[in-house]
Amino acid sequence: MAILSDRDIKRYIEDGLITIDPLDDPERQIQPSSIDLRIGNEFKGFRVIRKPCIDPKDPSDIESYMETFHVEDGPFIIHPGEFALATTHEYIGLPDDLVARVEGRSSIGRLGITMHVTAGYIDPGFHGRITLEISNIGKMPVALYPRQRVCQIVFETMTSPAERPYGHPSRDSKYIGQTRPQTSRIKDDYEIKNSRL
Question: What positions does the entry give for dCTP binding (predicted)?
Answer without folding.
Answer: 105-110, 123, 131-133, 152, 166, 174, 178
